[in-house]
Amino acid sequence: MGALDAFITSTLGLTKAPPYLGTCALAFVGFLLVHQVLAPWGSRRWAPGAFGKLDGGRGRNAWSIHVVSQLHALIIVPYALWVIAHESAAPDRAFGWDENVGHVHAIACGYFLWDSLDAVVNYTDAGFVVHGEFAFYSYERVEADVGLVFGVGIACLAIYTLSYKPFVAYYGVRCLLWETSTFFLNIHWFMDKTGRTGSRAQLVNGFFLLSAFFGVRILYGGMVSYDFLHTLVQVRREVPVVYVLVYGIGNFVLTSLNWFWFYKMISALRRRFSDEDDGVRKHHRHEERRRLVNGNGAAHGDGDVHVDAEEGIVRSTGAEGVGVRAGYGTR
């Protein structure tokens, strides 16, 4: 480990990284184990119907990905909150360091490493429905080139790895709180896959999803992004220009994408439940036509009356034969 530590600290300049390599490795192995073994096993045991109906290996892999994503959110958000609550009173936002930040960032690095490798291994032959940060997997099928997905995973991994120089670790732990919305997003996805699409439970979860996304990513995230840019401007002469450009542009892009995703999520939810309401209204109109026709009676005897809603006519089949007459089932 001495040579590895020397390479990481001297060559890469990640002076704070060596004590946290074990945490990162354990996180990576843990998420990989859940993805490959525990999630499929548990899903076959506790959700055999929904898991069995998924479209082959690709669909089941997506299910396991969401299990890992949910586990990561359940771990990283409470841990990040605890770290923020126990940090020093006046931390150095640009170059400060806290050993608790090191551990929470190590878990995030393990997750992003797993995520990037999964994109390469499982999605190298076709478009990939993006998950995690590109969270519309739960609402719409958003196809993206695997290179983009791999690039996003590598970018997140690089950003959190560079925090061990140390640099802007203060903001890294705060951005992990964005995963709060991922918790509700994964629930929404699982409801879709278990036959609860358009249900009241999904509507309630959608309310919490939008509230969490707006509160954590738009409001809180906007304040963090503003403070981050302010810090970046203050230290622009103390760091390489490429740092200022990469972090500054990246911050702007992610903030813009949060607004774009929020708009798309609202549109998707509105469309989904509007479609459900339209279906209910059409069913009620059909039943009303049937009641009106049945109330008028059959053409002859005790025959059956059928409404052809598309043609606007009533077909009567009775003891005297088959007849067609104008009815109440108009357009």
From TrEMBL:
Its main location: membrane. GO terms for cellular component: endoplasmic reticulum; membrane. SMART domains: TLC. It is a multi-pass membrane protein. GO terms for biological process: lipid homeostasis. It is found in: Membrane. Keywords: Membrane, Transmembrane, Transmembrane helix. The chain crosses the membrane at residues 20-41, 62-85, 146-163, 169-191, 203-220, 240-262. Pfam families: TRAM_LAG1_CLN8. Residues 58-274 form the TLC domain. PANTHER family: CT120 PROTEIN, TOPOISOMERASE I DAMAGE AFFECTED PROTEIN 4. This is TLC domain-containing protein. It comes from Asterophora parasitica. The lineage of its organism: Eukaryota, Fungi, Dikarya, Basidiomycota, Agaricomycotina.
